[in-house]
Amino acid sequence: MQYQIIGQTVPAVEMTLMAGESVFTQSGGMIWQTPGIQMTSNARGGLAKSLGRMFTGESIFMANYTAQADNVKIAFGATVPGTVVPVNVGQTSIICQKGAFLCAEQSVQLDITLTKKFTAGLLGGEGFVLQKLSGTGMAFLEIDGDMVTYDLAAGAEMLVDTGNVVAFEQSVQYEVTTVKGITNILFGGEGLFLTKLTGPGRIILQTQNFNDFSSKIIARIPKG
Known about the structure:
Elements: E1 2-6, E2 12-17, E3 22-26, E4 30-33, E5 37-42, H1 47-55, E6 62-67, E7 72-77, E8 82-88, E9 94-96, E10 101-105, E11 108-114, H2 118-123, E12 129-135, E13 138-144, E14 147-152, E15 157-160, E16 165-169, E17 173-178, H3 182-187, E18 193-198, E19 201-206, H4 210-219
Antiparallel strand pairs: 1-2, 2-7, 3-6, 3-10, 4-7, 5-6, 8-13, 9-12, 9-16, 10-13, 11-12, 14-19, 15-18, 16-19, 17-18
């Protein structure tokens, strides 16, 4: 499979497939394709995994696209201004926040996973169910705004607003901490909780928290 990231404001990944090559995405992820591609939909991984995806914000059914001829093209696009980033899952398994997964080769496994500390999910604001990408092949993540990566050394920590966490390697520990100081909690404007990521491993962050952005737009919509 060959691919290129196209566009800058609201980017997409366009793939060139040979006969027999296949990719999958959440329902509604495809934005264009050339003739010669067959689409099928299924509850990937069975009913249990499909229901688990529902709790991560993804669709129960996955759309599968298989090339019936050589050099056919298909594109999957981001939903908001930002970045599409390719990830070679064969090099390392990664944990993603809900909504980050865009599409992948069929050799990539998409599973739900629980945070190591149950309180992280209860308090973190993004739900305690995350997504794990493993197996082999390429996967593509959707990032709101620009992408920032850090390679954390063993024991190194990064405190991040939960909505700005995109993904991290499986070796990274994930937990939620409270903002220090009652004045900061009440008047700091950053919420009560932050996500603490502890190395070793790479973390992927996004500069935009689209949930916060949406909330500001909603607050300005005239009522009545």
